[in-house]
Structures are given as C-alpha cells and as structure tokens.
Amino acid sequence: MKKYAIIGLPLGHSFSKKYFEQKFAQEGLSDCVFENHELQRIEEVEHLFRDPELKGFCITIPYKKAIIPYLSECSEEVQAMQACNCVQLKQGKRIGFNTDVVGFEKSFITKLHKSDKKALILGTGGAAAAVCFVLQKLGIEYKFVSRSPHADQFSYQDIKSADILQQYTVIINCSPVGTFPKEDQAPDLAYELLSDRHYLYDLVYNPAVTQFLHKGQLQGARIQNGYPMLTIQAEENWMNWNR
C-alpha cells in the first residue's frame, strides 16, 4: 500500500483528501490511500515518519514553517522562504518542497495586467511567503497589511486611503477570513474605493466567491479564487512524492 497524507489543524476545510481520492479512483490507483492527520502539536509528525508505507505528505496551516527543523533536505524555495508545504519521504530522507510557489504563480498571472506594479498582502502566514517569493520574481512591489503592523507594514486603517489604493492595484488575501463556515466575513477594506483597475486574488477557495471577491467584483475589479492554485500544487505534490 502507498500512503499519502496532509497535516494541519484544523483539516475540516481541507481540499487535498477529496482531490487525491478522486485522482486515485479516476486513474485506477487501487494501491494508494490518502489520510488526514490533524496534529495538535508539530512534534506529533514524528509518528508519520515511522510509517514505512508513507511516501509523502502535504502541509497546511499552521505548520508550514514549523516543519522545517524536521527536514533533512530542502528545495531552494523552501530555503529562501522558510516555508514548506510538501514533504517527500524516500530512502530515509525527508525532503521539503514548496509547491505553493508554482501554484500561486501559474494561477495569478492569468489575470495580471502590465499596469499592476504594486500589491497589498493581507496575512503573514506560510502561504504569504510563497506569494512574496512570486511577487519578487515578477518585479511587483508589495506591502503587508496587518491589524498589528510592524515597521514597513500598513494597518487596515492605512489602506482606507484613496491614494494608497490607487497605487496598490493588486490585493491578495492570504488570511483565512471568509473561509467556510464563516463565509459572511471579509477583510476590512474600503471596497468602495476599488475599480476596474484592481485585481483581487483570494487564496480561499470555499466558497468559490468569497465576500472579499464579491465586494471587489461589484466595483468592477478582476477576481480570482484559490482553487486553481490548489489543483496545480496538488499535481506538483504528486510529482514530488513519486520522483
């Protein structure tokens, strides 16, 4: 039996198990299973490493950074970002990758305009690290937005300024705000100041159109949810696990 898994807390919203079980069924992979492992503490990952049938696992909130000390090797992306969302287990090695990078980049650029030069990032977790990596690669300047901003970050009050929103036409939600079952929530933005010059990208995929995206769409903004990012990174995970 070949086992694959996801670790995180909580996993009730997880996309991965359903995706891979459908993949196994469609491709006739009867010797493959996918398991959810809700870990209360990252230290609990040790019991996964003792399973000889486990070929690899993916990682979601809140362990993308906490997993790093448990790895024996890291890809260049993981080293640069200090965030990992995919681990391959092979010949006693624990090899870390970050497939959020390729997933975000490929899904993000489809609606990007040449005029998009500056971005606001809502949230500072592990997924935000991949977003920053891609924005740097694309030459897009960015600022974090936080409820408790550090130096060189904006507060949510700051971005109620029309001047700032005219400059920063890309807004990327890396926070869980608006995720099912709290889909009535949205980041605290001055949505009335948005226009068709803006591009709103939400890493949340359930619901398909979050309140963040809906409010932007009403102002004529381009919108994209996180579903394509997840499908791209899932296939990248699969390739990494089976190298």
Automatic annotation (TrEMBL):
<dbReference type="GO" id="GO:0009073">
    <property type="term" value="P:aromatic amino acid family biosynthetic process"/>
</dbReference>
<dbReference type="InterPro" id="IPR013708">
    <property type="entry name" value="Shikimate_DH-bd_N"/>
</dbReference>
<dbReference type="GO" id="GO:0050661">
    <property type="term" value="F:NADP binding"/>
</dbReference>
<keyword id="KW-0057">Aromatic amino acid biosynthesis</keyword>
<dbReference type="GO" id="GO:0005829">
    <property type="term" value="C:cytosol"/>
</dbReference>
<dbReference type="GO" id="GO:0009423">
    <property type="term" value="P:chorismate biosynthetic process"/>
</dbReference>
<dbReference type="GO" id="GO:0004764">
    <property type="term" value="F:shikimate 3-dehydrogenase (NADP+) activity"/>
</dbReference>
<dbReference type="InterPro" id="IPR036291">
    <property type="entry name" value="NAD(P)-bd_dom_sf"/>
</dbReference>
<keyword id="KW-0028">Amino-acid biosynthesis</keyword>
<protein>
    <submittedName>
        <fullName>Shikimate dehydrogenase</fullName>
        <ecNumber>1.1.1.25</ecNumber>
    </submittedName>
</protein>
<dbReference type="InterPro" id="IPR046346">
    <property type="entry name" value="Aminoacid_DH-like_N_sf"/>
</dbReference>
<comment type="pathway">
    <text>Metabolic intermediate biosynthesis; chorismate biosynthesis; chorismate from D-erythrose 4-phosphate and phosphoenolpyruvate: step 4/7.</text>
</comment>
<keyword id="KW-0560">Oxidoreductase</keyword>
<feature type="domain" description="Shikimate dehydrogenase substrate binding N-terminal">
    <location>
        <begin position="6"/>
        <end position="87"/>
    </location>
</feature>
<dbReference type="GO" id="GO:0019632">
    <property type="term" value="P:shikimate metabolic process"/>
</dbReference>
<dbReference type="Pfam" id="PF08501">
    <property type="entry name" value="Shikimate_dh_N"/>
</dbReference>
<dbReference type="InterPro" id="IPR022893">
    <property type="entry name" value="Shikimate_DH_fam"/>
</dbReference>
